[in-house]
Amino acid sequence: MQRVGVESILGVSIRDGFLLLAPTIPRAWPGFEVTITWRSACYVITVQNPARVSKGVILVALDGIAQPATQALALADDGATHKVQVVLG
To answer: Is the whole-model pTM more than 0.90?
Structure first.
């Protein structure tokens, strides 16, 4: 059930070594944070919702570096902790 909630509500899933981000949350939520582990790496994902929308990713940054908002992020098996910032709008 946890996986179903994380994937369908929070919109965070892993497919074939890629992190897919498609949050669909209530407008009232200011955002959320979720931590996932993939092999030896840890990904701390922070989703911000400043415009109070339900969906629509306008910014993705991986370890402070902007990424295409529509592209899946390749996951690294490097033992590090990575920070993923997602902004809805």
So the answer is: yes
